[in-house]
Amino acid sequence: GKKQDLKGVSILITAGPTRELIDPVRYITNRSSGKMGYAIARVAKERGADVTLISGPTNLPRPEGIKFIQIETALEMFTKVKENFASNNIVIKAAAVADYRPKNIANQKIKKSDGDMHIELERNPDILAFLGEQKGDKILVGFAAETNDLTQNALTKLKKKNLDLIVANDVSQEGAGFNYDTNKVTIFSATKETNKLPLMSKLDVADKIIDEAVTLLKKE
Ligand code: PMT
């Protein structure tokens, strides 16, 4: 077994994609499988933490011995994150939250016509930015999925969302990001440290992220 170094630490994790409904049979989503967030939940649990996992739709088995909350849309995730935020020491947001949702959800299946159709989208709340505004003494860890200008984009998000750490993955690289069992990330801290990790399993990445978050928590 693993060393039980997280006894008494509560960690809230989000994982997977969100689904933004168009009508009863259609939705907009993204390529997140949930693997990265579930790996963090599993490792945190194995190290003795109290774990809450808020998950979008995935095909993964539920990790055992944790509090598991299933959601579908970004708005549902927002509600559940707000409900569970206060009771946790560390929050890690690995979910790929949709930035936009259809402005209207049709009650019935939308019929096709001969012409084109348009779906109007409105902004979803930025859950992580909301948490950043009321962070208190919590350790807040975000992810950044980027295809270009990784460092610059990640550092901008770190600052804008008032995070302690941001885990940047270059999702254009083979073996990194969506759906792989491996990931290649660089962890940036608000205190200007950079930890560039090689390609490794998502479970090993999870250990590294938790190590850094717990080090920050113990400094407080
Ligand atoms: O699930 P896998 O297949 O294992 O893939 C893992 C992953 C690529 C999804 C994961 O490693 C990852 O990078 N997750 C974040 C993806 C993402 O949405 O990045 P972003 O740059 O759009 O968002 C930045 C951060 O803000 C993220 O922590 C995100 O959870 C959060 N966010 C974004 C939008 C929003 N409306 N609310 C948020 O909280």
TrEMBL record:
Keywords: Decarboxylase, Flavoprotein, FMN, Ligase, Lyase, Magnesium, Metal-binding, Multifunctional enzyme. Binds 1 FMN per subunit. The keyword Transmembrane helix does not apply. Residues 11-220 are annotated as: Phosphopantothenate--cysteine ligase. Pathway: Cofactor biosynthesis; coenzyme A biosynthesis; CoA from (R)-pantothenate: step 2/5; Cofactor biosynthesis; coenzyme A biosynthesis; CoA from (R)-pantothenate: step 3/5. GO terms for biological process: coenzyme A biosynthetic process; pantothenate catabolic process. GO terms for cellular component: phosphopantothenoylcysteine decarboxylase complex. GO terms for molecular function: FMN binding; metal ion binding; phosphopantothenate--cysteine ligase activity; phosphopantothenoylcysteine decarboxylase activity. This is Coenzyme A biosynthesis bifunctional protein CoaBC. It comes from Desulfonispora thiosulfatigenes DSM 11270. The gene is coaBC. The chain holds residues 180 to 399 of 399 of the full protein.
